[in-house]
Design a protein that fits this description.
About 70% of the residues lie in helices and about 0% in strands. It is mainly alpha-helical. The chain has one domain. It has a two-stranded antiparallel ribbon with strand order 1-2.
């Protein structure tokens, strides 16, 4: 299964075809839905618990997705910021998106991100990538457990579909899973659609709210964004797209993360970043070009602008078990794409140690432990 993902299933296609910036087919549509398992749970929490406006979230998220796809030319993901999500659910904060946007924009423009990336040994990125993949797979298993019989059945169903070339697996799984959820009562019923024009509202936080956001959301989020959304995403893009992926540099990822949050925050946007797990999910389920992020971006913008809150209710008909299956397979692929078998001795020890810390704590902790160890092994100060 891993080789089906890491080695492009379309490897027999002409090189020119693989270099297309846009491709209009069901694979791209399926790949566009591949990262719903990361997107929906955080957004549902923000809307139902915190009371954030679905229109602002969907419109800004969708625009960031579409513009990122157009800029990078490959299926770069846009995801909610995880640590910030946890902070917002516990203590709603405002202004955090403005601050974190400014931070990464400055870090990208100043060259700080590039210098950090050039100094990193390959084992650090590999350890982070392995740990992140295992964490996503574990999260997928937990979501599958929410509706165990449906989750196991959908995972088996997706495995069968993956054996059939050219099938849009994620698209079929989402449609079938939502249908089963509605038929069995697992999912909320179909909402009454509020069709019309729903515009985002301007949100201007006070200075006190900005300071609160920095303490509770920005500070814990910065190291996670640096590791997952920038370092590992850049490494994965170079693996999956050796030619096109060069545009997905650490500097560019910092710049687009910064600009995206600065522009989205005043319109009620959620704190957003890129993500290696999201890219792996898009790729796993068929995406190879900028079409996938463009499609999911347009879908989200349309849901926000034309359906408002009922667009959010429509997405809630997708059961957790289906989202868990998407996360499980993309997490496995991301873990395997770190290629731990290529390392031995001290390097393998470091990769596995960082992965373990990433799963047990978070990628930022793994980075803090792994980076000094990597340099110690490189200079012979430590030996295993």
């Amino acid at each position: 299964m891993a080789e089906d993902v890491i080695q492009d299933p379309e490897v027999q296609a002409p090189a020119a075809a693989r270099r297309r910036r846009f491709a209009w087919n069901l694979d791209e549509l399926s790949g566009a839905l591949g990262d719903l398992g990361t997107f929906l749970p955080h957004i549902i929490g923000a809307i139902t618990v915190v009371g954030m406006n679905p229109t602002g979230i969907f419109v800004t998220f969708g625009l960031f997705y579409a513009l990122a796809g157009g800029f990078y030319g490959i299926p770069v993901a846009v995801q909610p910021m995880k640590a910030a999500s946890a902070a917002i659910l516990i203590k709603p904060v405002a202004g955090a998106g403005l601050v974190i946007g400014a931070f990464f924009l400055i870090a990208g423009l100043s060259g700080l991100i590039g210098r950090i990336a050039r100094a990193l040994p390959p084992t650090v990125a590999a350890g982070l990538q392995l740990g992140l993949g295992l964490s996503l797979a574990g999260l997928g298993v937990r979501y599958v457990g929410h509706q165990l019989w449906l989750g196991v059945g959908m995972c088996a169903f997706m495995l069968v579909l993956m054996r059939i070339p050219r099938l849009p697996v994620a698209l079929i799984a989402v449609v079938v899973g939502a249908g089963i959820g509605l038929a069995t009562g697992i999912s909320p019923g179909l909402p009454r659609l509020d069709i019309g024009l729903h515009l985002p509202h301007l949100v201007w936080p006070s200075l006190a709210q900005v300071q609160d956001g920095v303490i509770h959301a920005v500070l814990p989020q910065i190291p996670l964004t640096l590791t997952n959304a920038i370092i590992v995403t850049a490494a994965l893009s170079r693996q999956l797209f050796p030619d096109e992926g060069r545009q997905v540099s650490e500097r560019n990822l910092a710049l687009t993360t910064g600009l995206g949050n600065l522009l989205a925050a005043p319109f009620g946007g959620y704190m957003m970043c890129h993500g290696a797990g999201g890219m792996a999910a898009h790729y796993r389920f068929g995406a190879r070009t900028a079409t996938a992020p463009l499609l999911i971006g347009l879908v989200l913008v349309s849901l926000g602008l034309f359906l408002g809150s009922s667009g959010y209710q429509l997405l809630r008909t997708i059961p957790d078990a289906v989202l868990g299956g998407l996360l499980l397979f993309s997490g496995i692929d991301l873990a395997l794409s770190s290629k731990p078998g290529e390392y031995a001795g001290a390097e393998l020890f470091l990769v596995l140690l960082m992965a373990a810390i990433g799963v047990a704590v978070n990628p930022a902790a793994a980075f803090a432990v792994g980076l000094p160890l990597a340099f110690a092994f490189r200079h012979g100060w430590l030996k295993v």
